Amino acid sequence: MKKGPAIYRLILLVMLAVLVTVFVAVSGASSRQRHATTCKGLNVVIADSASLSFVNASDIKGYMESYGPFLGQRLDSVNLRRIEEILGSKSAILGSEAYMTDDGMLNIRITQREPVVRFQKGGTGFYADERGFIFPLQENYTSLVPVVDGAVPIYSDASLKGEPATPRERKWLADVTSLLSYISRDKVWSELVAQLTVEEGGDIVIIPREGAERFVFGSPDGFDAKFDRIRNYYQAVKPLHEGDYYTRVNVKFDNQIICRKK
Predict the structure, then answer these.
(1) Lowest pLDDT segment from 51-55, 86-90, 94-98
(2) Are 126 and 118 in contact (CB under 8 A)?
(3) CB count, 10 Å around CB of 123?
(4) From CA 146, how far away is CA 262, in angstroms rounded?
(5) Are 244 and 213 in contact (CB under 8 A)?
(6) Mean pLDDT score across all residues of the chain
(7) Taking each helix axis from N to C terminus, what angle separates 223-232 and 167-185, rounded to the nearest 10 degrees?
(8) Which of 14, 50, 165, 237 has the highest Cβ tally under 10 A?
(9) From CA 119, how far away is CA 197, in angstroms rounded?
(10) Do residues 95 and 87 touch, judged by C-beta distance below 8 A?
C-alpha cells in the first residue's frame, strides 16, 4: 500500500518530462522556422475605423518608411518594439500592436485617439481626448466634437502634443471636459448648446444654437445651479419680451440672473 503514492509520483514526473521535451522540441522548430522564413507582406488593421478616420492603412505604410526595410527580412530580425515606438510617436495614434505570424506577414493593429473637444485658439486648433492628452488637428479627417474657442488657457509647444504643462492647465482642461460631458448627457442642453467661448478674463460663455443670447457661465463648475438659472431664464424671463431683447445673460453668480439689453 505504501508503494502506490510513490508510483503515482513517478508517473507524474515522467509525464512532466515528456511534456517539457515536446514543448522544447516544438519551440525549437518554431524558432528555426522563424529564422528561415522571411517577411512577405504587411497587414494593417485599424481597430476603430468605423468611428474615426484619422489614419488609414496607407498612412501606416508611410510611417513604416522611417523603420527601414522589413520585407524580405527574417521574421526573428524584425524589431517589433521599434515599430510600435515609431507608430506611438504619431499624435493621432493611441496604441499599436505589431506581431509576426508564421505565414510571413507583419501584422499591425492600430487604435486611434478619440477626441472629446476641439479647441480653436487664434489661428491654432487642436484636439483633446478624455485622458487630457492634446494633439493637433489632422489633415485627413475632422472629428465632429464640441468646439471651444477664444482665450483658451492652454499653452503648448509647436508640437501641440501631450498633457498641458502645468497643474492649473490640466485642471482647467479636466473641468471643461466634465462640462461638455454634462451637456452631452442632457438632451435639452445638448440640443441647445452650439459652442463655448472663453473670454479674456477667463469666463466661459455658452452660445446657443438659436437666439441672440450669450450666457456667461463663468468658471467650468457648479453645473447644476448654473444650468438651472439658464432654464429659469427661458421659462420666466424670455417670455416677458418679444424677439432678441437680451443679448447677454450672466448666470455665474449664485441666485442671480443678470440680463443685458440688446
Answers:
(1) 51-55
(2) yes
(3) 5
(4) 27
(5) yes
(6) 88
(7) 50
(8) 237
(9) 10
(10) no
- pLDDT for residue 119 is more than 80: yes
18: left (phi over 0), alpha (psi -120 to 50) or beta: alpha
- The three three-digit cell numbers of residue 140, written as one number: 485627413
Residue 88 sits at φ, ψ, to 5 deg, of -65, -20
Helix (H) and strand (E) counts in the chain: 6, 12
Q: How far is CA 253 from CA 179, 191, 229, 261, in A?
A: 17, 24, 10, 18
How far separated are the first and last CA of the chain, in Å rounded? Answer: 102
Q: What is the pLDDT of residues 198-238, one digit of tens each?
A: 999 999 999 999 999 999 999 999 999 999 999 999 999 99
Name the residue type at position 255: N
- For residue 195, the SS3 value is strand
Continuous H helices in 37-95:
57-63, 80-88
Cell of 231: 432654464
Q: Note the pLDDT of residue 70.
A: 93
Look at the block and give the residue holding cell 478616420: 53
